[in-house]
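Researcher: I've been going back and forth with a colleague about how Sugar transferase might be arranged in three dimensions. Neither of us has a model we trust, so I'd like an independent prediction. The organism is Caldimonas aquatica, in case that matters for your notes. Sequence below.
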Amino acid sequence: MAKRAFDLVVASLALMLLAPLFALIALAIKLDSPGPVFFRQERVGRHGVPFRIHKFRTMVADAPARGPQITVGRDPRVTRVGAFLRDTKLDELAQLIDVLQGTMSLVGPRPEVPQYVARYTPEQRAKILSVRPGITDPASLEYRRESELLARAADPERAYVEQIMPAKLRQAERYVDEATLWTDLRVLARTLRILLFRA
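Model: Here is an independent structure prediction for Sugar transferase. You can compare it with whatever you and your colleague have in mind.
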């Protein structure tokens, strides 16, 4: 209950304070390329219930038809404004809407698309999907340059499935085992420090 109350208060305040920034981002996206402001994609949420995540659109409107689920290096589908939003992680701020709706939390394992969740073991599904997915978590901070790592791989899809995803899942399981409001505050503080100082 304390975690959900914290999520609601912080997400509500953040959405109000960031409304002017959201408007500027939306305008920049519309001026840069045709298509919607938000990118909506099905992800797997708590208890395996699917939901459609919010992100500010960073790719061309028909990006899903042009390539794989993962983004590798300087993906040609990424727009000019999208490259800036991705680099600064501003595209993820739209998920405050998902937090307010209750499908996500501020901190929790990042939600995956169904095709990758299908690779989870039963034990991983039971543990990781027992909590709401989050905007940030220790694994997403460690792999914040994931697309650059994948760009150096001979087979990016295989590298993600066999190397990066297992490592992220181990961290997700550890998060679930150790999560408290205090550990969430530490993750949020680390996230803000990285975003503000690019550390």
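Researcher: What would you highlight for our discussion?
Model: I'd start with this: The chain has a mean pLDDT of 93. After that, consider the following. The first strand starts at residue 38 and ends at 44.
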